[in-house]
Amino acid sequence: MRLDDYIDIETDERAERRRLAAEKSYEVLDYLDDFERRFSERVSGDALVGSVSPSIFVGRSNYPNVSTGILSPVGHEDDAASFETSAEWYDAGLAIEDVFQRRTSLLNSNRSVGDVQVHDAWDGFLGTQREVAIADRPVGVEIGLNGTPDLDFGVDDVATPTGPRASARSAALTENPHVPQPVKKTLEDDDWNAQGAMTYLYRRDFDVYEINTILSAGALGQSDQRRLVPTRWSITAVDDTVGQYLRGTIRDAPSVDSVQVWHNTYLGNAFWVILAPGQWEFELVELKAPGSIWNPAPEQGVAVSSDYEGYEGRTGYVEETAGAYYAARLAALEHLSEIGRQAKVLVLRHVSDDYWGPVGVWQIRENVRNATTGDHGEAETFREAVTGVTEQLPVSLGRLRRKSEMVAGLQANLTDFLGGD
After folding, report:
1. Locate the Archaeal Nre C-terminal domain: which residues (predicted)?
2. Range of the domain at 168
3. Model confidence over 165-210: pLDDT tens digits?
4. In-domain check, residue 16
5. Among 173, 199, 230, where does a domain finish?
6. pTM of the predicted protein model
7. Of 55, 49, 82, which is closest to residue 162 (Cα–Cα)?
């Protein structure tokens, strides 16, 4: 398909969309009120009985003195698995309000720990938490609480939103968890470093969502190095580690033989993925519209950020795009590894004001993953691809060139600097 045919996209009817964060926040308050009612029906004395936990959460504030918790979908025990962040949320077409509703239904029963070293912690609260994390399905738990929940929610640019919290006195399993054999293998090998264990699980068809939960619980790595990892950190660590493994699989692969343009839009985030012949390079450029969640000041115009790596990869953490970079890179590398090719990869992310509430980098990962599963356009040159895509973006090619390492190499024309932001 020719590029000009491929990028003939209908204009969004933004004026007809309900996108004001203030309006949406009232819906979140309704979700919290609904949670309070369901909680009162499930609590017995000071214990949450009949609960089922699909996942865990480890905070990062005051590390290593962190808050660590067990997540329970109060009142939705029969459907607990659907409350765990996964690629299935994309497949189900969850809207932003759906994500917030699910996350505000999850009670985080937590307690503070003064030591993140947990290599032999299989008893008590931490032991129960680790059992939940390594299981391949939700596990029945009974949780003793200190008081009533704090009805609040929090948002983050990497992890999914968090809901109500309660101080946990104790936690115990009410059933034996089912632990997959590959996970048992990583637990039994005390000399296996965390990176090797992550790669092993990924090669055995564990998705990064499952792996980052196991890592967060301190259940991967050499025995004396096993420690709790804050959820936000574990998400990026797994994306980065698996990405480095995948980069190794294409290091000597032949290049793609044409310039390809892929596109996908979900949750107010539009992604353009451009693959060009050559050795591996990767860049993520983010364009955040005025009024979007990460660029709330309309007078400042479109905010542009970027990070880049060459053939040898990066030696340090990215400076501007945080976990989004590693999620997008992972998805691009999965595609290249699957087709047995390498390429120069430019990912352009346009965050519109329809993205009124941050849901986490899972939507970035799934946006790029699914971009490369449909039709794509082809261009004669990398310049033609970038020029064509820029016509769909709120910035000029000139501004994009000033911010992008890969676009900077294109020969400039005067018209590149005219129009746009």
Report:
1. 309-417
2. 21-173
3. 889 999 999 999 999 999 999 999 988 999 999 999 999 999 999 9
4. no
5. 173
6. 0.89
7. 55
